[in-house]
Design goal:
Length: 1965
């Protein structure tokens, strides 16, 4: 396409003389409109359509977008002006990319040019100048804006019009400047007031912005005044700035060259921090506009705590230097904080490197101080100026980009994290270089030839570091002055120029090895090994009492453990040197010396101790003791002395353990003596020092572990070790000479093989069972803790009703800010839940009612309750509340009035007894009292006639008089009450209808009531004798005895009701909302029955209300006022997950596989409530009334979508506004109601909005927002809709933009924050990045991009599958107060919260996962936080101390692969940096989990991979090494220990079975049992008992039962647990055990950890092929191996062992094996449907035969899947491959053992038998190869020959078998045994070939391996598919399967079968 020249359209503009047409660029943003290009036409009917202003080429999108948007806005009213705006946009686009080389530029220009051609003549007005028309339109919008801009309490519509006017005027001003001559342009500028940029985030700081209430707050004004205090700064001319500095940030920008957007962002950030700090300070200042010193000092302390610690650690003086003058000091503090924020805000990926930022700040602060002081350089004799500064983006180009380039190159070397960790530096390595004084050799300006910047290139030439970096234009001048500037700081020294060398790893090398587990927790493993040795020694001595331990012989044997200890320390020293070898270049010399000294000392002790023991054994020196002592004499040897000296090295550590304060001081102190003392015990690194807890915490977790270990060792001694001692001795005595195979080591004495086989599983269980004991004590201690802290205080609706009247007082204590009179809340006792009587806050009860009603309203808006239920739950707001008279919800009073009527009607006796009966039930008394008062009120309003009013008053006075005199029963006949009740109900119904035509019915009802009261109820009715009441004749007509009657009519109308007087009653009643609400409530009180006692019916609503009520009785901090609370922010990372379900995704409610059908069946009550709220009957009526968007939202709010999360998080804002309203409200405001005040009082509403903006922000970090926008993805519009629905929501994303440099496009990356204004996306900040930010793991990098746009002092991290509730959001300000309270030694830095899993309501699997997660996030984390003090960050929804974490590396770590579980590393980092992590259960957040087995397995695999990476990480190593012993145990068993214990439990099963296989096949077991009759079955049973616990899921079940019992009752817990077992929960948890162990073990050996998306959607059927791909290697192969072991063991042990013993030993292993085989099919929906089974079989055959290749996914071809399944081996090292080969050797034991048991071997034990078996294997392989070659050569052209060839081979094989059976006695059993022998051998060969793939991949052997592997997979598939097909053929199995799989749904009467059956259609289409 030829180049487009913009001459013709521009020539069509009519210019006046002196006009020109040059264009400039500008930027703005907005919402999407449809692309529409109309046909050019000159007809009058031409209607301009919008031109797409959203999908624009990135080259110039930000520059032209606002012009196109304004053109769309003006298109209909001012089409010519719109045309001129589009012309202007075209010119800008053309100037920016004249060659159209950018992506999509040519297409855009063509479409815009075509549109301009159409509009040119149509929009032209004859005789009118374009400029004149432009000016007229511009002035109109400008004047409108200027007139209204000062108002800040505008309605939303007026505000939108004002913003539109501003945007249009700004754009038209730009166009006018372009087309007018310079003189006119200057005049235009002088007369214009709104040409400046006015986008803002929270604070409109720029002049000319719309006034906002937030800028009127005194704290904001004070903060702004401090920021704008520029007195005393150097003149602006020194920095080449025209005009004075606007504020301190303006000064810093021009001084150091920060980006303008970064400056604007951090300016607002700091102002909000200062203002919020000010609100928490004591108000003792003289002026409210003056910022207090306290807040600034607190910010200084928070921001620079890490920096000052870093300076002390490196023995450098801090460069934060403050003047003595107080006024100047505050300015300096603000400058230093601002400088740090600007560095941090522009640091991009460097934010993960906090000490690198400290280094940068250190030098820039030094320069800042020099500039402020006007210092003169001693070398140049010029003023001190920044090394990098004075130019735009100077800091980015010269500082950030240079270090970023190093990170980028290292990441490139990592090959996506697959390369060995030792060959590339991650974020931690680069950051930790700045923990060494060597970092100052980098200098400032930084020396690019320093080794830090050198990156070792892999497979490419070494890059030129200098040329690869982006530098500013002033770099030449910088080079000239470099040497002079280096001298200005004394610590920067020059080194001789030398060839740069790669520094290598820093302080730690992540090496993939199982030895890492020993190295991290060496003290624990040493302790367990030594304890095992001691237990065995004690068991061998068979002691009678503990006193015998002091016997000299016994004691001497026991202390031989120190010899073992010496060898273990030698191993540890060797490992330390080996694992740190690749970090030797960056290691300090003292640390190298320490490693060598440790190795030398360990070597010496390994020599000294054994020599001493050998020389002094049994050679005692004894001393007698006093008579009567327990020990008669003390004996010792020289070895004992040596052991005592050996122990002295640990004595200091033991002493310091009991005095943690001293230990902490020694670790963190920089005194030489302290450094010397800590040199030996810990490495000299910056983190991990001073982590000791206070004395009480240490005692608590020490006591916990003493209890655990005591039980563990008693059990191990009694049931594991001691029972094996006697059998072991007997085994050693028996000499077995006859073996049943060829014994390779016949001369080995004492039957060592048998002893190893017997002891190995016991030893493995010994090392594993501590995890079980931890689980037991976790259950006990966690349960006690929960009881003591009042969890489960209100578990049921009945308990809620009984305690509801105490909720207002509890609410008053917890959620209403205390006044100065009220102290903190207290309880009467530890187990009491009654608050002490405290003076109520003003209007406390009324505030509770307002909040309760808001909660109920939101339950209705969420469709959890119906309209009727809402009426039953609401509490009326009236002036009575201020006198503490509460009208309780009707659901509490349900049936109470009717019951009271029944009691009164049938009562006979004294009136006092009746009163007691009614008042005994407080709610019955409330109901009676309120009904009476309501009736009085209704009659008072209804009856207006004077005589009637007097009658009513007299009757009521009479009733009340008799009540007071307790003579009501004597003077009133209460048996008439039911009839009176019916009439009053009738009256209430008439009043509610309010039909004017029913006035006569109202009169009749009133007359009936009066007649009943006076004639039937009142015994003595003399008071009414003076009045005459109407009577009825026989026909039912009312007549009067005379004219002076009640309700008389002035003019009788006999056609209607002649006796009704319109003036006597006021009917219909006034249309007043409150009045009708009272009448409706009165009617409900009279009529509601027992059914209301089950309100709310929805289970989720019940749970939420119960938890909220329970939480009010827990211990939480007092709530501050919203004005004084700590500000916070929520951040949610989002990738490509669903935002809303589209209508297409929802499908039709008639389609049984659609999401909407699924939702309707799973949430039937909520669907009904939704239709009721919408006023529709079904979906069709919804569509007819255009409410499909509401339908989308309803469905999306029930899935795991982003819109659900955003709705929940925005409840925080609603809660804050509500609480702020209550803080400010007077009685009149409360009576009006929150909604009324919000709608009617604009000024108050603006104040509430301003306060909410100050205290809360919500940012979504949308990783794919830019790409979704470019591709017109519907999710982009969904995100825009979210921001429209929630105007305060912000979206942060990375924009990848093309810039044309020298005619070629270059990618430029920017961090952007956007909002939506008037439906248009608008950029707030755009901060340029040094390159692509996604270098590490995606989620933490995504969070890091958005964190600079967050605000406040606390930060909550929320995933996009979470939810929140208004009632929980109300407690947020209480929670944030926890940051101000100490947890032991220090205040918390992370607040942990509990989660509610909301996805457990349908399938059994979802239920299991829900309970498992619930037990972990409650009872598990409760124990971790207290007493164990090792809770970390386990994902969301924890709340971070934001300032603490942004100065210490952020809220997660991002290094590729190693930080796969990025969240937990934030907890590690916080703990290592002396933070504290607490856990609080009074606030919960909703969370979704995976609901199908495949999703759950992927999640478990991801977590197992993450735990493996934690195992080899530096964080885990430091925690394991530097925690004290007991806290280290807590850390191990609550992190990687769980996974490693699971792994070794499974390994223990293999070890046991292979040991038994060895004993059986070798004949050892037969010989030992038959000859010696050794009965060691019980010992083996004991060894396997602990494994059975894990296999049966009881390990997970114990905490689960305890937590359910606490919160729902123990009977419910027991029922649920039994039901779970019936629904095969044990099968599920055993299967999950296999997932964990496979991925943990494989990743630790080979690597290959990766993120696995699970896609948490609804549960549907998974095909057989999919299940096989997922579980073949992780479960099926292992299960077949175990089954093979069990079968072989069973075959050859029968002759000498009972079947019962076999069952007792192996039942758990059979269960686990079958579980691993069957679980994927048992938990597969519709897994036994015959039609689906047939479909699965076809798909399986297609998959197994499909050839792989490039582009063919693994779900399409077995070949591709097999290739991907070995991905973990590609980057595996030699050691890991060798280990894989060695492990594969176990498959050869079958062949070696079984061939000697064949009949054909004729009992020969010659080694030749084994050799002949290999010949048979080779023959079989050759036979298979011959068939394959024949197929290749003959099958195509010689079909008949190929068939003859196969027949010949078949007959030949049969002949050989027949011949061998005759000559050599070959039997059928032999053939079966040969299969058992040769199949494992073939599989072992496949495993070895895979490990050796690099060597054989290009040979024919690899093709043969692949063919053999496919046959194995096909065979395993057939074996698995057979039982499924048989069961699917039986119809009853399908129904039974659906019942146990979806029992939860069936219990709720939900329709599941249609959902499962419906998915078939989708698969077939």
């Amino acid at each position: 396409m030829s180049e487009i020249v913009p001459a013709e359209p521009i020539g069509g503009i009519y210019f006046e003389p002196g006009e020109t047409s040059t264009a400039t660029a500008s930027a703005s943003e907005a919402p999407r409109v449809t692309l529409a290009i109309t046909n050019g036409s000159n007809t009058v009917e031409y209607v301009p359509e919008p031109f797409d202003s959203e999908r624009l080429p990135t080259v110039f999108a930000s520059e032209i977008q606002r012009f196109l948007r304004v053109a769309n806005l003006l298109g209909k009213e001012e089409p010519r002006v719109a045309y001129l705006c589009r012309v202007h946009a075209f010119v800008i686009a053309h100037n920016l990319d004249k060659n159209s080389s950018g992506r999509g530029v040519r297409q855009f220009k063509t479409s815009l040019l075509h549109r301009l051609e159409q509009d040119e003549h149509v929009t032209k007005k004859k005789g009118t100048s374009d400029i004149r028309e432009l000016k007229n339109v511009y002035r109109a919008y400008r004047d409108y804006y200027i007139r209204h801009e000062k108002a800040f309490d505008l309605e939303q519509s007026r505000r939108e019009r004002l913003i539109n006017a501003r945007d249009i005027a700004t754009v038209l001003f730009e166009v006018l400047k372009t087309v007018t001559d310079p003189a006119s342009s200057q005049a235009l500028i002088q007369g214009n007031a709104i040409h400046k940029k006015t986008e803002f985030n929270i604070l409109p700081l720029e002049q000319g912005g719309i006034q906002h209430a937030i800028t009127q707050k005194s704290e904001i004004k004070a903060a702004i005044a401090v920021i704008r205090n520029v007195r005393g700064l150097p003149p602006a001319q020194d920095f080449k700035k025209h005009g004075a500095f606007v504020d301190l940030f303006d000064f810093l920008q021009h001084c150091f060259g920060f980006q303008e957007a970064n400056v604007a962002n951090q300016r607002e950030h700091l102002i909000l921090l200062l203002a919020n700090m000010q609100t928490r300070q004591t108000h003792n200042q003289t002026s409210v506009l003056k910022l207090g010193e306290g807040g600034v000092d607190e910010l200084m302390r928070k921001f620079f705590k890490n920096y000052t610690n870093w300076c002390k650690f490196l023995e450098r003086k801090s460069n934060i230097r403050l003047p003595l003058v107080k006024q100047e000091s505050q300015q300096y503090k603000i400058l230093y904080i601002g400088l740090y924020l600007l560095i941090w805000g522009e640091a991009a990926n460097l934010r993960f490197m906090p000490e690198c930022l400290c280094y940068i700040f250190h030098h820039m602060a030094y320069e800042l101080h020099g500039i402020l002081c006007g210092a003169i350089s001693l070398t140049t004799w010029e003023k001190v100026m920044p090394a990098y500064g004075g130019e735009p983006e100077s800091f980015l180009n010269n500082v950030v980009t240079r270090i970023y380039t190093v990170i980028k190159q290292e990441v490139d070397n990592s090959k996506g994290g697959a390369a060995d960790y030792s060959v590339w530096r991650n974020y931690d390595d680069l950051n930790e270089y700045f923990w060494s004084p060597d970092c100052f050799k980098i200098g400032w300006p930084m020396r690019l030839d320093h080794e830090f910047f050198f990156v070792k290139s892999r497979n490419k030439p070494k890059p030129d570091v200098k040329n690869a970096l982006v530098v500013s234009p002033g770099k030449t001048k910088e080079k000239k002055k470099r040497e002079k500037r280096d001298e200005e700081e004394p610590e920067d020294t020059r080194e001789e120029i030398h060839e740069p060398q790669w520094l290598g790893k820093t302080n730690f090398v992540e090496i993939r090895s199982f030895w890492q587990i020993f190295r991290c927790f060496d003290r624990m493993w040493s302790f367990f090994i030594l304890s095992l040795q001691a237990i065995i020694i004690i068991a061998c001595h068979d002691l009678g009492s503990p006193i015998q331990l002091l016997d000299a012989v016994v004691f001497e044997d026991i202390i031989t453990i120190f010899i073992t200890s010496a060898y273990l320390k030698l191993i540890q020293a060797i490992l330390d040197i080996a694992f740190m070898w690749k970090a030797r270049y960056t290691m300090e010399y003292s640390q190298k010396v320490k490693l060598v000294v440790k190795l030398v000392l360990a070597t010496i002790w390994t020599i000294v101790l054994p020599v001493c023991y050998a020389n002094s054994r049994r050679k005692y020196t004894c001393y007698s003791t006093k008579y009567g002592s327990l020990v008669e004499e003390w004996c010792f040897t020289s070895y004992m002395v040596a052991a005592a000296i050996y122990l002295t090295t640990n004595a200091v550590e033991v002493v310091l353990f009991f005095v943690p304060a001293v230990a902490k001081y020694i670790e963190v102190s920089n005194y030489k003596i302290c450094r010397v003392l800590s040199w030996w015990t810990q490495p000299r690194i910056y983190v991990g020092r001073g982590m000791q807890e206070d004395q009480v915490s240490v005692l608590k977790y020490t006591l916990f572990w003493i209890l655990v270990l005591s039980c563990k060792f008693v059990f191990s001694y009694s049931f594991e070790v001691k029972p094996l001692i006697a059998p072991t001795r007997q085994i050693m005595k028996i000499g077995v000479k006859k073996y049943e195979w060829h014994e390779l080591f016949p001369k080995v004495k004492s039957n060592a093989g048998a002893i190893v086989a017997v002891w190995s599983p016991v030893v493995i269980v010994y090392f594993m069972d501590t995890q079980i004991w931890y689980s037991v004590f976790c259950t006990i201690i966690g349960g006690l803790y929960g009881v003591l802290h009042h969890l489960g205080e209100i578990r049921t609706l009945g308990m809620l009703r009984s305690k509801f009247d105490s909720l207002p007082s509890a609410f008053n204590v917890c959620l209403i800010p205390p006044s100065s009179k009220r102290g903190k809340k207290k309880r009467k006792g530890l187990l009491s839940n009654i608050f002490q009587k405290l003076p109520d806050e003003k209007n406390a009860t009324a505030k509770f009612v307002v909040v309760w009603n808001q909660i109920v309203n939101h339950l209705r808006l969420e469709d959890l309750i119906s309209n009727r239920e809402m009426d039953l739950m609401m509490m009326p707001v009236s002036s009575e509340l201020f006198s503490a008279k509460v009208r309780w919800p009707v659901f509490l009073l349900a049936n109470k009035f009717s019951t009271a009527l029944t009691i009164a009607k049938d009562f006979e006796g004294k009136e006092e007894i009746l009163v007691k009966k009614i008042t005994k039930d407080k709610y019955m008394f409330y109901a009676v009292r309120e009904c009476y008062q309501s009736l009085k009120y209704v009659l008072e309003i209804l009856v207006v006639g004077s005589i009637e009013k007097r009658i009513i008053c007299d009757i009521l006075s009479e009733i009340e008089k008799h009540i007071q005199e307790t003579s009501l029963l004597k003077n009133f006949n209460l048996k008439v009450l039911p009839a009176l009740h019916a009439k009053v109900v009738e009256l209430a119904e008439l009043l509610m209808e309010g039909d004017k035509d029913h006035q006569h019915k109202v009169v009749k009802a009133l007359l009936d009531v009066f007649e009943l009261v006076t004639n039937d109820m009142m015994v003595d009715s003399r008071i009414l004798d003076m009045f005459h009441f109407p009577e009825q004749n026989e026909c039912g007509f009312v007549y009067f005895r005379n004219d002076d009657q009640l309700f008389d009519s002035v003019e009788m109308n006999r056609d209607f009701y002649p006796f009704a007087n319109e003036n006597s009653i006021h009917f219909p009643l006034p249309e007043s909302g409150p009045l009708m609400e009272k009448i409706k409530r009165f009617h409900l009180l009279l009529t509601v029955k027992d059914t209301a006692m089950d309100v709310p019916a929805n289970l989720d609503a019940r749970r939420r209300i119960s938890f909220f009520a329970t939480s009010l009785f827990t211990d939480m901090p007092d709530a501050p006022k919203v004005h004084n609370m700590m500000p916070f922010c929520v951040i949610t990372p989002h990738y490509i997950e669903d935002i809303n379900f589209s209508l297409k995704e929802l499908g039709s409610d008639k389609e049984e596989d659609s999401i909407i059908f699924y939702m309707q069946k799973i949430y039937p009550d909520e669907w009904t409530n939704f239709l009721e709220r919408m006023g529709c009957d079904n979906r069709k009526s919804l569509e007819d009334e255009h409410k499909t968007e509401d339908l989308r939202l309803w469905a999306s709010f029930r899935g795991q979508t982003l819109s659900r999360t955003v709705r929940g998080m925005m409840y925080y804002r609603e809660a804050l506004k509500l609480q702020a309203f209550l803080d400010m409200a007077e009685e009149e405001d409360i009576l009006e109601g929150y909604e009324t005040a919000e709608r009617g009082n604009r000024a108050l509403f603006a104040r509430l909005e301003a306060l909410a903006d100050m205290k809360y922000t919500y940012v979504i970090s949308c990783q794919s927002f830019a790409s979704q926008k470019a591709s017109n993805d519907p999710r982009y519009q969904d995100m825009i809709d979210l921001m429209i629905r929630y105007p305060s929501l912000r979206v942060a994303y990375v924009e990848e933009k093309e810039e044309i440099v020298q005619g070629k496009p270059h990618k430029v990356y920017s961090s952007k924050l956007v909002k939506v204004v008037n439906g248009f996306e608008q950029t707030i900040y755009q901060i340029k990045l040094p390159g692509t930010p996604h270098l590490g793991e995606g989620k933490p990098e995504n969070q890091n991009n958005a964190i600079i746009f967050t605000r406040g002092e606390a930060l909550q991290t929320i995933d996009m599958n979470q939810d929140n509730y208004l009632e929980e959001a109300l407690k947020m300000r209480n929670l944030l107060q926890e940051f101000l309270q100490r947890q032991g030694r220090r205040p918390p830095t992370i607040l942990g919260l509990r989660e509610h899993i909301f996805t457990g309501s349908v399938s059994s699997l979802a239920w299991f996962m829900s309970y498992q997660e619930t037990s972990f996030v409650t009872i598990g984390q409760r124990l971790l936080a207290n007493p164990l003090r090792v809770r970390f960050h386990y994902g969301h929804p924890d709340v971070f101390d934001r300032v603490f974490h942004i100065t210490r590396g952020g809220i997660s770590k991002a290094s590729k692969t190693i930080n796969l579980s990025e969240d937990v590393f934030a907890g590690f980092n916080s703990t290592l940096r002396r933070g504290c992590i607490s856990y609080h259960e009074y606030l919960q957040i909703g969370k979704g989990r995976d609901v199908a087995l495949n999703q759950i397995s992927k999640f478990e695999a991801k977590v197992a991979n993450g735990n493996c990476e934690q195992t080899i990480s530096r964080d885990m190593f430091r925690l394991g090494r530097q925690f004290d012993f007991f806290r280290m145990l807590s850390c191990y068993f609550t992190t990687i220990g769980f996974y490693f214990s699971s792994l070794i439990s499974v390994i223990g099963i293999y070890v046991f079975l292979y040991g038994q296989l060895y004993l059986v096949l070798s004949g050892l077991e037969r010989a030992l049992i038959i000859e010696a009759r050794i009965k060691n079955v019980q010992s083996l049973e004991t060894a396997l008992a602990s494994q059975s616990f894990i296999q049966l899921g009881l390990l997970t079940g114990l905490p689960m039962v305890m937590e359910i019992g606490l919160e729902r009752g123990f009977l419910t817990a027991l029922k649920d647990f039994v039901l779970m077992q019936l629904q095969l929960a044990a099968v599920f948890f055993t299967f999950a055990l296999g997932t964990k162990t496979h991925y943990y073990g494989r990743t630790l050996l080979h690597g290959g950890a990766k993120y696995r998306p699970t896609g948490r959607k609804v549960v549907f059927h998974a095909s057989f092929t999919e299940n096989y791909r997922l579980y073949s290697r992780s479960h099926f192969v292992k299960a077949f191996e175990l089954l093979l072991l069990l079968i072989v063991y069973n075959m050859f042990r029968r002759s000498y062992q009972s079947s019962m013993a076999y069952v007792l030993i192996t039942y758990a292993i059979w269960f686990m094996s079958l579980t691993w085989l069957c679980a994927p099919f048992l938990f597969n929906p519709a897994g036994f449907s015959w039609t689906k089974t047939v479909d699965d079989w076809k798909e399986w055959n297609k998959w197994i035969r499909q050839q792989g290749g490039i582009g063919i996914q693994q779900d399409k071809s077995w070949h591709s899947w097999w290739h991907d399944e070995q991905a973990h081996l590609r980057w595996s090292g030699f050691g890991s491959r060798l280990t894989e080969v060695l492990l594969s050797l176990r498959f050869f034991i079958y062949q070696y053992g079984l061939v000697y048991h064949l009949d054909i071997s004729q009992h020969s034990k010659n080694f030749l038998v084994y050799v002949l078996s290999w010949i048979v294997i080779v023959a079989i392989f050759l036979l298979v190869k011959a068939v394959n070659m024949g197929r290749q050569l003959l099958s195509a052209n010689y079909q008949l020959g190929f068939r003859f060839f196969k027949a010949f081979l078949f007959l030949a094989v049969l002949a050989i078998i027949f011949t061998l059976s005759i000559i050599c006695e070959l039997s059928l059993t032999d053939l079966f045994v040969c299969c058992l022998a040769f199949m494992p051998t073939a599989w072992g060969l496949i495993m070895m070939a895979q490990a050796a793939r690099p060597k054989i991949e290009h040979t024919g052997l690899w093709d043969f391996t692949r063919a053999l592997a496919r046959e194995f997979d096909y065979g395993m598939g057939i074996v698995l598919f057979g039982p499924i097909a048989i069961l699917a053929w039986l119809p009853i199995i399908k129904a039974f399967h659906a019942r146990f799989l979806f029992n939860e749904a069936f219990k709720r009467h939900l329709q599941i079968q249609p959902i499962l059956a419906g998915k078939k259609k989708k698969h077939r289409t």
